[in-house]
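hiii, so i know i said id send this last week but things got crazy w the move. better late than never?? heres the sequnce for the chain we talked about at the cafe, plus the structure i predicted for it. fair warning i was half asleep when i ran it
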Amino acid sequence: MRTMNKLAFAVALLGGVATLPAHADIVKVDGSSTVYPITLAAGEEFQRNSRHPVKVTVGVSGTGGGFKKFCKGETDISDASRPILKKEMEACKEAGVQYFELPIAFDAITVVVNRSNDFIKKLSVADLKKIWEPAAEGTIRNWNQIDPAFPNMPLKLFGPGSESGTFDYFTEAAVGKAKSSRKDYVASEDDNVLVQGVARDKGALGYFGYAYYQENQKRMKAVGIVSGADAVLPSAKTVEDGSYRPFSRPIFIYVNTKSFADKADVREFVDFYMKNGARLSKEAKYVPLPARAYTLNAEHIAKKRIGTVFGGEEAIGIKIEELMSRETKM
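okay and structure toks below
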């Protein structure tokens, strides 16, 4: 096993508090808080195994914020919890930034309530629209306004900020239009802030990536989403079989092709990520893709297949096999 020197390793763990050696290389990543746990784990393990000082910096400015930096050429890799959108594609094109689109796992956006909530086990997409649509702002304030069977209890909402890919996906899937949401809720690009908010307020309801729910099950409960006749809870099984809909989704990294061509550490990191993507995704509490998906990613890079297979549109309700089909057809 390759190891990096103790100074560089210590600096990596400290997030750059100390000064790296002048010859140390930096791989810059920013973007989605949902993808962050996987990329952070990949970066830390890569640093430990590197034969020379290297640092993988992983920021959390949200999918939208990450793409803004990426399309300016400020980062090597962008974490994204949704496909790149048309306006971001145009921004990258104008700046001359080309990219590889690499799906790395599947997520289940999880709707959660406070652990002490004993009256709600399921919600329909129509219920979620009623709660989150712009018309609900300042109007839907109590639980019994959603359903008369619910108690007359204040409804406190927590959700991602407008730069979040989770926000984009959820609003399109639940409300019918991306970024169409009431604004009178506690918003944060940091999912840990949302977790804390839901855990502290008996009347709370929020949504975020599956991994953050998995890590905090003792502090909150997942809400089943009514799909057809049944309410379905998020799990690896319901994501894999496509029954947890419409909130199952692929998550990605986007790699700047120039960084990949010019920087050996970026190439080595991406190679490490693809070879270990399934394990890292599972360890981070997400649903790994089939092994073939990571091999396809490597093949697409080798063939220099740049751009996106989504055409700048969201991928609501796409199943794992559909994602694989898109990848192999293009």
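btw The mean pLDDT is 90. thought thatd interest u
miss u guys!!
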